Structures
1.
Amino acid sequence: MAAAAASHRRPVKDSDLQKMPAKGGHTTLSDSAKPTATDAVPLPLYITNTVFFTLFFSVVYFLLLRWREKIRNSTPLHVVTLSEISAIVVFFASFIYLLGFFGLGFVQSLIIPRSSHDEILDDDEIIEDFDQMMLKEDSRAAPCAAAPPTDACKISSPKPIKKIVDDFLPVVPLSPEEDEEIVKSVVEGKIPSYALESKLGDCRRAAAIRREALQRTTGKSLDGLPLEGFNYEAILGQCCEMPVGYVQIPVGIAGPLLMNGVEYSVPMATTEGCLVASTNRGCKAIYASGGATSIIMKDGMTRAPVVRFGTAKRAAELKFFLENPLNFESLSQLFNSSSRFGRLQNIKCAVAGKNLYMRFCCTTGDAMGMNMVSKGVQNVLDFLNKEFPDMDVIGISGNYCSDKKPAAVNWIEGRGKSVVCEATIPEEVVKKVLKTDVASLVELNMLKNLTGSAMAGALGGFNAHASNIVSAVYIATGQDPAQNVESSHCITMVEAVNGGKDLHISVTMPSIEVGTVGGGTQLASQSACLNLLGVKGASKEVPGANARLLATIVAGSVLAGELSLMSAIAAGQLVKSHMKYNRSTKDVRK
């Protein structure tokens, strides 16, 4: 039967794909017969648009000429000829067409009454509904998008933006035969894998078909990679392209971390044994000592385009122009016009021969802000091109920013949030909780974190393992994991105080790059972790407050991790603890 069915299958066509479901993996009974806006246009769309564009500008030109002649001849403007009446009618007709986004929306509204079941939300409703969803998300049964549903815990998928409501229409699911035809077309190269979401309109089905096509193409199984239980709509166009599943990373909780008088339970996504346990011990020591203090010293994301001139003199002239305080106000107005939250702070330039690197620094609200600062920089570059027509823009990023690379400019000038966090640990806590003594910790920090790092030629790496904690918190809260490179720049300072009895420890981190809106922070799992910390979404009171608080929590977690690991090394417990917690007892050969 299966062979017979296969022999009667026809190749998949684009027209078939257009009839496939728009949302949710179903096809409505009315989809195949539903008229579209282009059905009302007798000519091909591109010809129709060309005709209306030509008519619009032609009649505008004609009417302006006639208006000028009447003014010159003192003819009353309200006296019009038949040709002028015709031109006015054509003008309004073409104007209405263009106003309706080339006429499609206008024509469709005339021939197809909008159904109450096909209402599409406008931008204001989308924003309002999204805010309501974020406020109510705490009450969902399962906050993690990657958790498989059970009878006791059902996942409530985040509300899709611009969702077409078809709740009252009967649905007909696509048959496995149709899916099989699409898989074959992908394998044969007839349908690009990247186009499945737009062709099918169903992100989950697209991922399943792409996954099956990949297995057939490579001959490798993906059985261990989960597919079900994830909201693929949430990542479309913002987090990941061409998905075939998702990777599961366990999330542990360290804490409570007592910092600035507030307790935080810190989520850490990691596969390294001992990391959460060690950070948790550091939190315990800080808590028993009365807590830590964390301070934001600077807040500003950077982007540094590179431009080239014919001579080094011209490059220097632009440098002087940009760094002149008299020009800053006009430049900042151009920059700030691109965003509600992006505010230019300063521009620092560096010349290399005929090339000029301009490092723009601005605040970005609760967003990490790379896109925001890039838009502002583009506005300024467009202006500079008019003032300096011989300027050649080589790239909007010239690595003087510097993003996702260890760089001295970030270590010295800072990027993102510059944070310092400190705590004083009494001698009793050092002995009972950390199982070591103050003198050993001071000596180890000097020889390991300071001298040892200098011998290695470290750049921003004067610490024990700051990147461990930064990476774990970043993954859990939806940050860009690659920015762990500069965000982990940290110098750990340890010294004896109060007559050598107590321990003062601090971490100084000049470039923590975090945000609480945008990117991966909008996914359900990561949003739940941000909510646990009390920093989900944008701050309603003070723009940027949530992102700054998250940066201080990252620094406080690093402080706890540094304190615990240094104590383990000083006490000679590092190898023993890793043998206990970081080695599996399973016989993987079975």
2.
Amino acid sequence: GAYVLQVKATDADDPTYGNSARVVYSILQGQPYFSIDPKTGIIRTALPNMDREVKEQYQVLIQAKDMGGQLGGLAGTTTVNITLTDVNDNPPRFPKSIFHLKVPESSHVGSAIGRIRAVDPDFGKNAEIEYNIVPGDGGNLFDITTDENTQEGVIKLKKPLDFETKKAYTFKVEASNLHLDHRFHSVGPFKDTATVKINVLDMDEPPVFSKPVYTMEVYEDTPVGTIIGAVTAQDLDAGSSSVRYFIDWKNDVDSYFTIDATEGTIATNELLDRESTAQYNFSIIASKVSNPLLTSKVNVIINVLDVNEFPPEISVPYETSVCENAKPGQVIQTVTAADKDLSPAGQRFSFRLSAEASNKPNFTVHDYRNNTAGIETRRNGYSRRQQELYFLPVVIEDSSYPVQSSTNTMTIRVCRCDSDGTILSCNVEAIFLPVGLSTGALIAILLCIVILLVIVVLYVALRRQKKKDTLMTSKEDIRDNVIHYDDEGGGEEDTQAFDIGALRNPKVIEDNKIRRDIKPDTLRFPRQRPPVEDNTDIRDFINQRLEENDVDPTAPPYDSLATYAYEGNGSVAESLSSIDSLTTEADQDYDYLSDWGPRFKILADMFGEEES
């Protein structure tokens, strides 16, 4: 009886004439699903709970017929297509009550380990399902989400599985509709429940260390080979395998320790120094003997403990001074100590005078018991004339074991001070200065003396430089003087245009004296030399010319260099040396130059003219 729609037919006959325009509706096709009111044409459902999941679309054939007339009633038909709209009237149902899953224990956290599905015959959003794990066994290890495309429940792993710890898990999963229709609440609960059983599969796993991190301690300077600790790893699989250990070498620091491959004990391999490296951090790897590829790693931290091996010393070098007018008990210096060892919390340093200094009535040490001490005077006044410096030996001890101590000598200088204790002077030379001369005046005098010394040094340096420059100038006048000639020579034939001797020594121009570095013209006459025989040995030839120069009375009294050239036999142009030349140039015959070709034409013409 649910309303579907209303149809209406019109008749063109006159409605006032009989029943010709009166229309009656009926269904020719579509029963028993639908019915129609014959007068109003309203179509209604004829069966209860029509199910869209059974049939979605219906075709209903409607007839409209008038009630009379001469033609005995005329009819018209039309087809109505009716589609059922889905509503959420069906709850989801699991196809089976128990789902079995097998999951390897090596599955990663967050990975999908299985799928289950509940069926909902509805469509669209009415078929959307939400899955939830019922609180209980497995609720902390597993999670389930809905695949939006397939509406399946995807079971995921929240924590790692361990076959050796637990081999099976059982929990319940509930499937329910996301979108509920309140009109169908009476139908029943729109959800279903199924049981999931998960069996954990045993896998070959790497060894497992007993601790996530190992921390050990060792004293510095521990003998090499001393065992300082051990690591332990076990194979938790059903068929337990032996484990081997080794250090994960990454740098040279790892060489300070060794590990026993079977027992896992760690020992020192070198002497350790707390002041050099206070902590070592490295990794140890454990592998299964049955499958060396299965390994696990653990971090090891080794702290090196300090051994008291250095004595404490005064932290900084102090420049301590005492006034001549100091009073007894006056603190002139506060000292602190430092230790090269890494001092533990609460370590204390003690201060005292050495045994030999404790009997002297000059100074004393007052230990404040807070790792500081004060140097105090024991006398009423000090004199620089008697003693300018005092050396005070101070003994400092630490509180570590074994106790270390050192003697530190402090230097105390006696100074002149005013009545307020302000230091005026600490130099011993100031003792002999007049009382009325202040420090500023002394500094001014010293500055004046320094300035005078600088002026004298500069004056002497300038004098020496000037003298040196004068000497250099005079030498350069002789050696490097350049004489310029602006007149043009007469060519190759002009040999009398100027005296070439002026170029050799400029003083010849001024003094016109006989030069000692060239041969005088008065001594220039030819010397008779015997002809050289053919094939004469060069050495004999040179010795002969040397004897001639030695006995020559016309040889000038200066160093001269006589150059000789001798050419052997076989030359086509014969000898070019002047050794066998004629005595005078007039005896020379230059006609042969004309036979040497055009390149020697100018030379042949020049010597030919001189001969003519």
3.
Amino acid sequence: ILMVDEKGKNMKCLTFFLMLPETVKNRSKKSSKKGNSSSSGSSSKLPPVCYEIITLKTKKKKKMAADIFPRKKPANTNTTAVQQYHQQNLNNNNTIPAPNWQGLYPTIRERNAVMFNNDLMADVHFVVGPPGGTQRLPGHKYVLAVGSSVFHAMFYGELAEDKDEIRIPDVEPAAFLAMLKYIYCDEIDLAADTVLATLYAAKKYIVPHLARACVNFLETSLSAKNACVLLSQSCLFEEPDLTQRCWEVIDAQAELALKSEGFCDIDFQTLESILRRETLNAKEIVVFEAALNWAEVECQRQELTATIENKRKVLGKALYLIRIPTMALDDFANGAAQSGILTLNETNDIFLWYTAAKKPELQFVSKPRKGLVPQRCHRFQSCAYRSNQWRYRGRCDSIQFAVDKRVFIAGFGLYGSSCGSAEYSAKIELKRQGVILGQNLSKYFSDGSSNTFPVWFEYPVQIEPDTFYTASVILDGNELSYFGQEGMTEVQCGKVTVQFQCSSDSTNGTGVQGGQIPELIFYA
């Protein structure tokens, strides 16, 4: 028997020698024969029980279970059982645990994780999800209260209600399970299709670290396709950092964002904020068409027939936030004027705005948007030309670069002819690890100077920090052009630092020290 004092410093081991009845009887007979001269009381006594006391010294430093049992793969004999319990957690199949299942897990964290989505010892159940799509999930009040102040108030607060079943219709089951997994297992398991719902659950039950992880996940996966939806959600969840990141993407890649399916899913307040945006980098005809697409989907949400009248009705005053008078005349005449969304008087007044010296008053905003001012990163300190350089015969000029902040590459600045004015055909590409992210085929005219001439992608390409990308161009035109020299491996451009290195794709001589692609044109 092991005994320990209150301070846990000394332990004693008491060893008892138990004698069988037969042995006791024999020893009693021998004792009675030898002890005839002794009193009758002493002859009836059994011999004393033998014992031994051993003092064990313990180390002063206490160790936790994780220190004593370092995490490692279970032995082969237990592998099947461990996998069985993990599968039980996922499926909630309520199988009866094997005896001594606690022995399979050396740490309290692992044993606690067994309780995740497990009916074993559950003292509360949640019916999660909207009617028709509910899922019944088990819970353990103590574990939940430790992980969330909302659950603590719900189960142990002054106004706690003793309910065995709690209905949560406003949270998706998958999101609630993701939150429970974090509380029970200290693991964050996020997916693109459930991260917003998980963020909602984390906000509702005040689980800040999980909420922060959701925001980080969203920022990492942010693109023009989902920026408008995330903008709407970030305002709802009061996440200003995420809101700012969404605006950066929407401003720089406005046309892609406005043409995305997610744009039609935003609420009216978000629609108004986008239409008001001064720095929106898009043609106004694209803004107009996006607003009409949103109006058609909004009619469906309100169970209205998608007629011209109903589209105008759901748009309301937001229609006048579209800067129709700033469109190109062709865009207005062939697009907005024939859409039917404008009244006859509005159409006539806007035509007069384009042509008349005395312009009529309009309800529409007539001041063009400022858009974004592109920045240029020039990587050469000088340029030159020679009688035998720089030649183009279908070969590729390429350079690799990396930035320390997220930017959006809009195009490249290229050198032109060194023998007078000339026209070039340029195929530009932007790749990451061999995958083409953007490309375009266009022409530009050079005037014979050493200036650089911009060549643009159809849409700006999002560039993530601390990753090398490959910029390439294949030129067709005048055989001789200017080329850069005294190249820099690192250039500070505003708040963005750009690093350059040679590319194996370059077959025409361009590298860090000299060559083509003198400029990166980007939004930041």
